[in-house]
């Protein structure tokens, strides 16, 4: 019985992993990039790279609010709401934003953001239309070119498979500790197995955490049944009880004079002290039911007590309940959510999350490469005799090339499109995204014809060259460059350039390694580890 | 008359069918268990309503994983279906009882 269970788990691990690995790779890759969502967005807005970045100054708040209100009243008097964003660590600029009235049939209007220069007077209105880091963020659970709710079910399904693959992977992995220290390089498929083991085991807590919390972030979609039984399916009532501040008040359509927002500052200070503010949102403008909500910058706290202070916009009365201590369940939920988004992470910890994410990508990629290599070994004799590789093998190899080598190239082309496309182009943001998928499709087409070394090397080298040249691109197409950014200590921009170069270098290195191990499928005498592997694959096939 | 000649009994006892059936049991049967457990816990947990719903939802994915692994660990696929359907029926009846 025990042996059968072990074998079933091996089977499960192989097939569950293989079936969803490419979607998972896309999700992991985009999710990993979204740890630097704001930094990427910053880089994709070169208009902001000079004379814009500033720190939060509590002494300036009053003046900034007064000026913001005057500016918004002049430029956005018929908006749905106003948002005044103060500089934070990761979005280091002051901006006035608003949402236009939604078109009939749409739930939301268009979001417009004007960024204030450091001199406090100039306002930048002509930033290029780009989704920036938010594209990757959305991509990792909404995919693209399809309705979001369908995409979220697909991603949820794959995530559940990932959880099963992880659990079964742990079960079949008898020597988890020993494998931490065993990496045998240049040993053909055994090196791939070792790489798979190392990347899985080293970051195992992270993989489990990110998978489970990923399911939890969208659990209202996947598991709404508790709401069905306890609230008779009234999801609104549930959300209202969970986060009372989220409930929107409808306008009364009775016009009313708005107060000066800055007069509320002393009251806010009375509740929160000198906690830095992140955002002020003003909704239902010039209406009897207008609301002014203050949000604090929660910085590095793990749980994100986001309960805002909500005031009436006409008489300045505090309307939200004074915050009560959240319950253990809420704190647990909030902690799990912020573990997934890493919103509390300072630069070093954030980098660590990023590296763990990369290891997740490596785990998925090595797993599926390993499968393809072993299957090719099995078919080697037939292939030598002129028989074509089976459709399954060709499909897996093609998808491997498309996603493993194609994703960096696609990302690279997204960044290049961001800088090269005409600024006034129609649907510009969409075309940046299209260029991401066009690159991916081109690699897929290439994979239809040739899935061998040449294709891998070509695609890897292309993206390597592209990424290494990113600082050059940045210097040519923006008003700052790597050196000036170092001088001005713009670490987000410097980090972006350097990370791209680093990854470009790594891809170049990988493409060179390919030549050495031309016979990836070199079979060595199976040892204990090898027999475990061949058993894995045998079970799988 | 290929349909008539198709050897149903033989096909059903094949290992490939067994695995196919287990997979379906794990995906759908497992979800059924998780969903009913989620609904039941939301009613049964001795916490304020919003909190028990939240707890139930957070736990349900762990239950799903356990149910799916269960489907692969029992001897026959039929047993997997039986177990998962029984458990979810019990949960469902309890929901009716409590709700």
Automatic annotation (TrEMBL), chain A:
It comes from the Bacteria. The chain crosses the membrane at residues 12-36, 150-172, 193-222, 351-373, 394-417, 429-449, 458-477, 489-510. Pfam families: PepSY_TM. This is PepSY domain-containing protein. It comes from Shewanella nanhaiensis. PANTHER family: IRON-REGULATED INNER MEMBRANE PROTEIN-RELATED (PTHR34219), PEPSY DOMAIN-CONTAINING PROTEIN (PTHR34219:SF4). The lineage of its organism: Bacteria, Pseudomonadati, Pseudomonadota, Gammaproteobacteria, Alteromonadales. Keywords: Membrane, Transmembrane, Transmembrane helix.
Automatic annotation (TrEMBL), chain B:
The chain crosses the membrane at residues 24-47, 53-73, 80-98. Keywords: Membrane, Transmembrane, Transmembrane helix. It comes from the Bacteria. This is DUF3649 domain-containing protein. It comes from Shewanella nanhaiensis.
């Amino acid at each position: 019985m025990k042996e059968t269970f072990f074998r079933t788990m091996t089977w499960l691990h192989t097939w569950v992993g293989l079936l969803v690995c490419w979607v998972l790779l896309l999700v992991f890759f985009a999710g990993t990039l979204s740890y630097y969502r704001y930094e990427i967005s910053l880089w994709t807005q070169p208009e902001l790279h000079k004379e814009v970045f500033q720190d939060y100054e509590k002494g300036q708040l009053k003046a900034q609010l007064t000026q913001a209100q005057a500016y918004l009243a002049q430029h956005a008097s018929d908006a749905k709401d106003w948002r005044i964003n103060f500089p934070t660590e990761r979005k280091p600029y002051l901006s006035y934003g608003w949402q236009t009235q939604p078109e009939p049939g749409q739930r939301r209007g268009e979001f417009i953001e004007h960024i204030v220069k450091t001199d406090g007077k100039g306002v930048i209105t002509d930033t290029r239309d780009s989704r920036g880091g938010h594209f990757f963020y959305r991509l990792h659970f909404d995919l693209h070119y399809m309705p979001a709710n369908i995409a979220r079910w697909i991603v949820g399904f794959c995530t559940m498979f990932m959880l099963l693959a992880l659990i079964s992977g742990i079960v079949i992995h008898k020597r988890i500790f020993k494998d931490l220290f065993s990496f045998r390089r240049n040993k053909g498929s055994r090196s791939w197995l070792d790489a798979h083991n190392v990347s899985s085991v080293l970051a195992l807590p992270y993989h489990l955490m990110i998978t489970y919390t990923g399911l939890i972030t969208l659990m209202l979609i996947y598991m709404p049944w508790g709401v069905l039984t306890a609230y008779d399916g009234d999801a609104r009532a549930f959300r209202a009880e969970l986060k009372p501040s989220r409930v929107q008040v409808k306008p009364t359509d009775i016009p009313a004079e708005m107060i000066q927002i800055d007069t509320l500052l002393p009251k806010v200070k009375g509740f929160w002290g000198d906690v830095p503010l992140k955002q002020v949102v003003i909704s239902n403008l010039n209406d009897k039911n207008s609301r002014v909500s203050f949000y604090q910058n929660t910085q590095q706290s793990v749980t994100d007590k986001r309960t805002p202070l909500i005031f009436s916009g006409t008489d300045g009365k505090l309307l939200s309940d004074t915050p009560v201590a959240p319950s253990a369940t809420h704190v647990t939920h909030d902690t799990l959510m912020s573990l997934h988004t890493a919103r509390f992470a300072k630069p070093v910890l954030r980098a660590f999350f990023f590296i763990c994410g990369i290891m997740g990508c490596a785990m998925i990629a090595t797993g599926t490469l390993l499968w393809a290599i072993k299957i090719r070994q099995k078919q080697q004799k037939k292939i030598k005799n002129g028989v074509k590789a089976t459709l399954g093998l060709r499909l897996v190899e093609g998808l491997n090339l498309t996603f493993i080598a194609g994703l960096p190239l696609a990302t690279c082309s997204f960044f290049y499109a961001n800088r090269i496309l005409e600024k006034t182009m129609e649907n510009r943001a969409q075309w940046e995204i299209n260029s991401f998928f066009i690159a991916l499709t081109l690699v897929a087409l290439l994979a239809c014809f040739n899935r061998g070394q040449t294709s891998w090397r070509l695609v890897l080298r292309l993206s390597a060259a592209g990424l290494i040249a990113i600082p050059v691109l940045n210097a040519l197409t923006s008003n700052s460059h790597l050196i000036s950014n170092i001088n001005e200590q713009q670490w987000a921009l410097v980090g972006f350039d350097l990370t791209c170069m680093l990854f470009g270098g790594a891809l170049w290195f990988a493409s060179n390694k390919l030549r050495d191990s031309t016979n990836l499928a070199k079979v060595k005498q199976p040892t204990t580890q090898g027999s475990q592997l061949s058993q894995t694959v045998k079970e799988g096939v | 008359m290929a349909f008539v000649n198709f050897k149903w009994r033989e096909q059903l006892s094949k290992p490939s069918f067994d695995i196919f059936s287990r997979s379906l049991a794990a995906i759908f049967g497992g979800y059924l268990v998780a969903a009913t457990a989620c609904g039941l816990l939301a009613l049964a947990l001795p916490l304020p309503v919003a909190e028990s719903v939240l707890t139930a939802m957070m736990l349900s994915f762990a239950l799903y994983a356990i149910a799916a692994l269960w489907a692969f660990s029992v001897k026959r696929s039929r047993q997997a279906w039986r177990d998962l359907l029984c458990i979810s029926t019990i949960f469902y009846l309890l929901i009716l009882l409590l709700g």
